Protein: Protein phosphoaspartate phosphatase CheX associated with MCPs of class 40H
Organism: Geobacter sulfurreducens
Amino acid sequence: MALSFTVKEATFKEADLVGHIVESVKKIFSTMIFIDDIVDEYPLAKPESHFIASISGMVGLGGDFSGMVGIHIPIEFAKEATASMLGMELDELEGEDDIHDAVGEITNMLAGEIKMLFSANNLTVGLSTPSIISGSDYTVEVVSSGAAVVVPFNRNEHRFLATLQIEA
């Protein structure tokens, strides 16, 4: 069954949300990170919440509804994306701060793109400051009775997820 949710008088269908996420992620990676070969692989074969050697960025949504926007990305690709975003070589990155900041900013940009979709439908949406989780082995569980859209992406051997969780 396809996901659909209504807030006030605006109804959003899964296909529309997925399309907006795909377009937004590809635009962000192309224009801000200078990586043009991102491929979406929707739908996700099975739910994923366990990550190995990864970094997750999350931005909360609040206003007419609540929710969360997330990016879950392997640390090696996060390093690549950070270096490209900053115009640096991989070996010029120092520590994890730049990587955490870059993933936070990527997540914030995606949340901003999603906010624009909702705002265009006369919904009030505020964004939280990005939160970052990283590690060699961790699980991200969203406790919610709401709807979720998870879009997998690939770049070469790297697979990452963009997520939207909505509590209407």
Notes: Strands lie at 4-7, 10-13, 39-40, 50-63, 66-74, 125-127, 131-139, 147-155, 158-167. The helical segments are 14-31, 75-86, 97-119. Residues 10-167 form a domain with the Chemotaxis protein chec fold (CATH 3.40.1550.10).
